[in-house]
Specification:
- 31% of the residues lie in helices and 14% in strands.
- Strands 1, 2, 3, 4, 5 and 6 form a 6-stranded antiparallel sheet that branches.
- The chain is globular.
- The longest helix has 20 residues.
- With 235 residues, it is α+β, with helices and mostly antiparallel strands.
- It has one domain.
């Protein structure tokens, strides 16, 4: 097990999720798997993230700045181009913590190569779109229940104008988070996919050396989606 600090992931969560905590149905059970596993299924493919996917919408008029209506621009999902990434793999055993909470590492079973590759690609596309600030594209890789939580947030706060997932994320994101998000996207290295039915956890190395994160994933009609805005530190 690699040791490390929780600081980068905690920073990302704070910068991204200020004001969002509790907007979805959070799970307060004791295990790490339960805490990290809130989420659901989604609305686009995990395999290639190409801009052709059904249901993808360009919610904005550019990649940054304002939409011209006094609201942050969520970006245009059709402008997002997936990048190539390589992952080390190796399985969850390498991430076990002696005497620690290994509920994620022991969740379900280790996935096969095809499932691993599909879920890892979904995560990388999500992280890359997030790093670019293309929130409309980010939403394409998120689970349906996660997207719905942001729509509910907009409804509860009586947000006017564009209340789409991308617009809500653009509005709540601190611009100072982008450097941390970019670093995580560049350095993310997936080592394991633990799967049980339609739910799973991707375990991956984060931006800071030694930091290991778990991202809950959800499968919808054979497509893996990201079920959280940030990975949960395992060490």
């Amino acid at each position: 097990m690699r040791g490390g600090s929780k600081t980068p992931a905690a920073l990302v969560a704070l910068l991204l999720l200020a004001g969002v905590a509790g907007c979805g149905g959070g799970d307060d059970s004791g295990s790490t798997a339960a805490r990290a596993g809130a989420g659901g299924s989604g609305e686009s493919t995990a395999n290639d993230g190409a801009s052709k996917q059904n249901g993808a919408k360009g919610d904005g008029e550019g990649k940054s700045g304002s939409s011209g209506k006094g609201q942050p621009d969520p970006g245009d999902a059709s402008e997002f181009e997936p990048k190539q990434h390589s992952d080390s793999g190796g399985g969850a055993e390498q991430f076990r913590v002696k005497g620690g909470d290994n509920s994620v590492q022991e969740f379900g079973e280790e996935a096969g190569t095809s499932e691993f590759d599909a879920a890892a690609t979904a995560l990388h596309n999500f992280l890359d779109a997030r790093a670019e600030g293309n929130w409309a594209a980010v939403c394409r890789y998120m689970s349906k229940s996660t997207i719905e939580s942001f729509e509910q947030l907009a409804a509860r706060t009586k947000q006017s104008g564009d209340t789409s997932c991308g617009a809500v994320l653009a509005g709540i994101t601190n611009p100072d988070a982008q450097a941390a998000l970019k670093a995580e996207a560049e350095k993310a290295d997936v080592g394991s996919l633990r799967i049980e039915g339609g739910q799973a956890f991707l375990i991956y190395a984060g931006a800071e050396k030694g930091t290991i994160l778990a991202m809950p994933m959800a499968n919808e009609a054979g497509t893996w989606k990201v079920a959280s805005l940030a990975g949960t530190p395992l060490n």
